[in-house]
Amino acid sequence: MAEIVRLRPVLERDLPLFERLHEDPAEAGELGFFGHRNPGQLRRQWAERGFLTAQGGRLAISQGDDDRFVGEVQWHQVLQGPASPCWNIGISLLTAERGKGYGKRAQRLLAQYLFAHTQVNRVEAGTESVNVAEQKALEWAGFTREGVLRGACFRDGAWRDMVLYSVLRGEIAAES
């Protein structure tokens, strides 16, 4: 699959799909819906300060020559030691865009972007242990499985195991 996948700032024209991706249980899917949140909060955050800060951010995943919104990647800072920040990343794709390879490419692009524009040495990602497709995508993107975090994620009335992945600065090359 040679289709173009890009990361770019979220644009105003993306907001209706962006909100649907996070606020509509059917669009978020079984593994992506964590309960209803404050309606309009995402749009207000975008209007007030955008989705890019020193502590984390969100970028749109776009596909094709028409720069069509297909999902988003996000990251936030976590500490693995008193002076050892790293980025924890996540991804959400529109239901119709899943299974096309966009996610694995977007996660690799995000890791490359974060290593190119920040000083962290580690990018990590977690996914529920039943999400085999995401585990394969992370491995394709260059991440290494580190282990299972038992009972770490509460969703849909139950505590669920998570699988933790990471990639280090020296393990992923920037694509030109």
Give the mean pLDDT: 89
N- to C-terminal distance: 18 Å
Task: State the helical fraction.
Answer: 25-40%
Radius of gyration from CA coordinates: 16 Å
CATH architecture: 3-Layer(aba) Sandwich
GO molecular function: protein N-terminal-serine acetyltransferase activity; protein-N-terminal-alanine acetyltransferase activity
Domain N-acetyltransferase: 5-170
Keywords: Ribonucleoprotein, Ribosomal protein, Transferase
Protein name: Ribosomal protein alanine N-acetyltransferase
Describe this protein's structure:
- With 176 residues, the chain is an alpha+beta fold.
- The protein has one domain: Gcn5-related N-acetyltransferase (GNAT) (Aminopeptidase, 3-Layer(aba) Sandwich), CATH 3.40.630.
- It has helices at residues 15-23, 25-28, 41-49, 102-117, 132-140; strands spanning 5-8, 52-53, 56-63, 68-79, 85-93, 122-128, 144-155, 158-168.
- Strands 1, 2, 3, 4, 5, 6, 7 and 8 form an 8-stranded mixed beta sheet that branches.
- Helix 4 links the parallel strand 5 (85-93) and strand 6 (122-128).
- Helix 4 packs across helix 5 (132-140).
- The longest helix has 16 residues, at 102-117.
- The chain is globular, with a radius of gyration of 16 Å.
- The model has no long low-confidence stretch (mean pLDDT 89).
- Residues 5-170 form the N-acetyltransferase domain.
- This is Ribosomal protein alanine N-acetyltransferase.
- It comes from Streptomyces zinciresistens K42.
